[in-house]
Amino acid sequence: MSDEFYRIKRLPPYVIAEVNGMRAAARASGEDIIDLGMGNPDLPPPPHVIDKLVEVAKKPDAHGYSQSKGIPGLRRAQANYYGRRFGVDIDPETEVVVTMGSKEGLASLATAITAPGDVVLAPNPSYPIHTFGFIIAGATIRAVPTTPDEAYFESLERAMAFTVPRPSILVVNYPSNPTAEAVDLAFYERLVAWAKENEVWILSDLAYSELYFDGKPTPSILQVPGAKDVAVEFTSLSKTYSMAGWRIGFAVGNAKLIAAMSRVKSYLDYGAFTPIQAAACAALNGPQDIVETNRLLYHKRRDVMVEAFGRAGWDIPSPPASMFAWAPLPPALAHLGSLEFSKQLLTHAHVAVAPGVGYGENGEGFVRIAMVENEQRLRQAARNVKRYLQSMGVNTGAKASG
Ligand SMILES: Cc1ncc(COP(=O)(O)O)c(C=O)c1O
Question: Which long-range CB contacts under 8 A does 2-11 form with residues at least 24 apart?
Answer without folding.
Answer: 7/135, 7/136, 10/135, 10/136, 11/132, 11/135, 11/136
